[in-house]
């Protein structure tokens, strides 16, 4: 891992944290993933040698930068979805600033609309948006996750356990999938086909 990347992304993370501390309203906050979780995503992508990556919930692109840093080494293409155009543009600018923008397609879209119409298959999917929509997203996620070695990662399953319980049970009740929870950061739920 390049020390330059680590130092630069830490400065950005501190900046986003300062923003979030200034806002009490949850939706106004950027709510970026914890650095230790982001590091794990980066390692998982390198291990999987992912080629096609989907992120649901770009925010200001902190997690996207970690995905893109790994995507540079695996020659992957990332599509990241954000409903808020201003945030998506900010995320794009950050990717330009890190010279990682060529690996990322920034889409301003309601994730539900994208999931309903896409015919693509993804090796790696990060789900980090509004938790009350996750059960609906599960109507589409199995179709777009690659059956051979595809990995879905869902953030905040320990920090917001009660909000994701229905979703977790829905996935766990499906005998086609193996799952586990990693108590890293806010808690990551990992899902893969058997
Ligand atoms: C927890 S933040 C994502 C943080 C980001 N992954 C990171 O670590 O930097 C969730 C984001 O999902 C976006 N979002 C909420 N509902 C959405 C939807 N239906 N479609 C796309 N994005 C959505 C929010 O605007 C917010 O920026």
Reconstruct the topology from this structure:
Elements: H1 3-21, H2 35-48, E1 52-56, H3 62-74, E2 77-82, H4 85-97, E3 104-108, H5 111-117, E4 124-127, H6 134-137, H7 141-144, E5 151-155, H8 161-172, E6 177-182, E7 188-193
Parallel strand pairs: 1-2, 1-4, 2-3, 4-5
Antiparallel strand pairs: 5-7, 6-7
Bound molecules: S-adenosylmethionine.
Residues 31-33, 57, 59-60, 62-63, 81-84, 87, 110-112, 128-130, 133 line the site of S-adenosylmethionine (SAM).
GO biological process, one term: methylation
EC number: 2.1.1.-
Pfam family, one: Methyltransf_3
Structure characteristics:
globular, Rossmann fold, binds S-adenosylmethionine, 194 residues, 7-stranded mixed β-sheet
Structure explained in plain terms:
The protein is of the alpha/beta class and 194 residues long. The protein has a single domain (31-193), classed as Vaccinia Virus protein VP39 (Rossmann fold, 3-Layer(aba) Sandwich). It is built from 8 helices and 7 strands, in the order H-H-E-H-E-H-E-H-E-H-H-E-H-E-E. The protein has helices at residues 3-21, 35-48, 62-74, 85-97, 111-117, 134-137, 141-144, 161-172; strands spanning 52-56, 77-82, 104-108, 124-127, 151-155, 177-182, 188-193. The chain has a 7-stranded mixed beta sheet with strand order 3-2-1-4-5-7-6, with helices on both faces. The radius of gyration is 16 Å and the shape is globular. The N and C termini lie far apart (31 Å). The mean pLDDT is 97. S-adenosylmethionine binds next to helix 3, strand 2 and helix 5.
């Amino acid at each position: 891992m390049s020390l330059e990347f680590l130092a630069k992304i830490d400065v950005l993370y501190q900046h986003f944290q300062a923003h979030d501390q200034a806002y009490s309203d949850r939706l106004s906050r950027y709510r970026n993933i914890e650095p230790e979780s982001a590091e794990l995503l980066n390692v998982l992508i390198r291990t999987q040698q992912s080629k096609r990556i989907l992120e649901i919930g770009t925010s200001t692109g902190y997690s996207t930068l970690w995905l893109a840093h790994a995507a540079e080494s695996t020659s992957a293409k990332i599509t990241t979805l954000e409903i808020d155009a201003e945030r998506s543009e900010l995320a794009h600018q950050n990717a330009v600033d890190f010279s990682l923008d060529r690996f990322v397609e920034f889409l301003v879209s309601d994730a539900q609309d994208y999931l309903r119409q896409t015919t693509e298959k993804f090796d790696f999917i990060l789900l980090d948006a509004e938790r009350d929509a996750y059960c609906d997203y599960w109507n589409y996620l199995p179709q777009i996750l690659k059956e051979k070695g595809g990995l879905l990662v869902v953030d905040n399953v320990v920090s917001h356990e009660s909000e994701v319980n229905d979703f977790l049970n829905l996935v766990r009740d499906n005998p086609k999938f193996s799952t586990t929870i990693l108590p890293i950061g806010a808690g990551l739920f990992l899902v893969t086909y058997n």
